[in-house]
Amino acid sequence: MAFIYPHISPIAILAGAVVQFALGFLWYSPMTPMGARWMAEMKVRPDAKPGAEMAAFPIGSIVAAWAVSMVFAWSGASGVLQGMLAAGVIALAVGAQVLTASVANNQRSGALLAINLGYVAVAYLVTGAVVGLLA
Description:
By secondary structure, this protein is mainly alpha-helical. It has one domain (10-45, 56-134). Helices cover 73% and strands 0% of the residues. The chain contains five helices and no strands. Helix 1 (10-27) packs antiparallel against helix 5. It is globular, with a radius of gyration of 16 Å.
């Protein structure tokens, strides 16, 4: 059976997803100052065990890496910098949604917004670099 989208690399998608998920693990980890701040803003105790909702994050990382790969391929991009540019376009769109959701739910702090927007920006740029490297 042929891959549905022969112009993109399943290996690049998988690698981009793994890197993005690992970055999220570090970004939101209570072992880092940013993760500790995120936990405080979200009112999550550092000793709390991850719940079943964590299963959604690897799926989201795969979808994000797939989207980056698709934009990368459709745009005719090549290389790491163009991969980051393609991913940056998606990060801008996703960041706008995070910002809009945060404004709509005004119970969130500016610090939480900055943490989440920062993750979106960095995660997509790193995913774009991986896709650009492996595509």
